[in-house]
């Protein structure tokens, strides 16, 4: 078992990474909380697979356990679903000593965490991520929220979990597309923060695509360590350090938004966004030769898209203006300057962005 401590003072918590971790959830929670009630938030697909397992795991805590299911998909990550969840919390008679458990991927975790953050001005919640993307990224750091019709994640808050219980064994039931979705975030960490991780991914592409247990667990642990290290230094993105984690997301979120959250998954859009961001770095002569090619080859090798063919460039540019990382109408881009190091670049000329978008297929 691997335990990564996220040191945030009063909001500190642990990330536990181990096969079978979900079955030991009560053991991990008992030193942290004596819940009056537990509400599991999930979707029908995940709950059908792991609902009984997590219920049985929580029984030793000796409290009433109920569940509330949401629709599956980014298109349901909105305020209407949050209202449904809040109604469910009232019906389940949750109080401030109750605990919400988010069992699912990034959409479930974001919505369960946001609902927990505003119900009674904040109740504790636990992340039990069931997708690779959620295990290495969205379950860590306390960013919770929903989408607005004008852009992704425009409504939300910071609400740190009580615990992140990461069980790589749950990935065995993940679809191939959803698994690839998480690999984009894994590759992101290698490009912006860990050359050794990137090289490891290059060497073990075959094992990685086949979900080789030993290698995958180590990769998940390393990604969690990277994110924990960064958010400890800038939990609310005040200094800008945490913004480095948004590599590929400025353009990626815009691509998701303008295609209605249905054509590309989050990870696929981020993959396209990383290629575009690296292209911006190339046009500005910020990155040595070979970096763009290595990144693109790795993304393609795991089955992720590297082109945004047919996507309307003007709509992507407009959508980026609503990006949360924009300030005073000026966009910030995270760009690589080598494998293992990313930097934040402000005031990138519009013509450079448009050229990069054109070169990845936007029209």
Question: What's this entry about, in short?
Answer:
By secondary structure, this protein is α/β, with parallel strands linked by helices. It is built from 14 helices and 11 strands.
Corresponding CATH architecture of the largest domain: Up-down Bundle
Q: Roughly what percent helix?
A: 40-55%
Topology-level CATH name of the largest domain = Dehydroquinate synthase-like, alpha domain
Strand percentage lies at 15-25%
CATH superfamily of the largest domain: Dehydroquinate synthase-like - alpha domain
Computed Rg: 20 Å
- Given the helix and strand composition, which structural class is it? alpha/beta
Question: Could you list the spans in which at least 5 consecutive residues all have pLDDT below 50?
Answer: none
The helix tally amounts to 14
Total domain modules:
2
Order of strands, main sheet, comes to 1-2-9-6-5-3-4
**Helix-strand sequence:** EEHEHEHEHEHEEEHHHHHHHHEEH
User: What would CATH call the class of the largest domain?
Assistant: Mainly Alpha
Largest sheet: 7 strands, mixed
Question: What general outline do the C-alpha atoms trace?
Answer: globular
Mean pLDDT metric: 94
Number of strands: 11
Rounded to the nearest angstrom, the distance between the terminal CA atoms is 48 Å
Family: Belongs to the sugar phosphate cyclases superfamily. Dehydroquinate synthase family.
Main location: cytoplasm
Protein name: 3-dehydroquinate synthase
Enzyme class: lyase
């Amino acid at each position: 078992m691997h335990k990564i401590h996220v040191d945030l003072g009063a909001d500190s918590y642990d990330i536990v990474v181990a096969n079978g971790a979900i079955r030991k959830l009560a053991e991990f929670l008992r030193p942290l909380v004596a819940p009056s009630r537990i509400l599991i938030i999930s979707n029908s697909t995940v709950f059908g697979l792991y609902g009984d397992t997590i219920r049985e795991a929580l029984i030793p805590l000796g409290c009433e356990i109920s569940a509330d299911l949401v629709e599956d998909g980014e298109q349901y990550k909105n305020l209407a679903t949050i209202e449904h969840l809040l109604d469910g919390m009232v019906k389940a008679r949750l109080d401030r000593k109750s605990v919400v458990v988010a069992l699912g991927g990034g959409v479930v975790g974001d919505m369960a965490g946001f609902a927990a953050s505003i119900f009674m001005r904040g109740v504790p919640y636990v992340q039990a991520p069931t997708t690779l993307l959620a295990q290495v990224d969205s379950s860590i750091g306390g960013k919770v929220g929903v989408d607005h019709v004008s852009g992704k994640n425009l409504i939300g808050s910071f609400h740190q979990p009580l615990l992140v219980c990461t069980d790589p064994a749950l990935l065995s039931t993940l679809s191939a597309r959803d698994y690839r979705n998480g690999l984009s975030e894994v590759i992101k960490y290698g490009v912006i923060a860990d050359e050794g991780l990137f090289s490891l991914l290059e060497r073990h592409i075959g094992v990685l695509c086949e979900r080789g247990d030993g290698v995958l667990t180590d990769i998940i642990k390393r990604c969690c360590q990277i994110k924990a290290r960064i958010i400890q230094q800038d939990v609310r993105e005040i200094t800008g350090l945490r913004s480095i984690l948004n590599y590929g997301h400025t353009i990626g979120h815009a691509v998701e938004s303008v295609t209605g959250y249905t054509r590309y998954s989050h990870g696929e859009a981020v993959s396209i966004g990383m290629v575009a961001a690296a292209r911006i770095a190339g046009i500005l002569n910020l990155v040595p030769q070979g970096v763009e090619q290595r990144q693109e080859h790795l993304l393609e090798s795991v089955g992720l898209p590297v082109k945004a063919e047919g996507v309307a460039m003007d709509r992507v540019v407009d959508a980026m203006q609503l990006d949360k990382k924009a300030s005073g109408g000026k966009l910030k881009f995270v760009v690589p300057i080598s494998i293992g190091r990313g930097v934040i670049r402000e005031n990138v000329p519009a013509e450079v962005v448009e050229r990069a978008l054109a070169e990845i297929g936007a029209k």
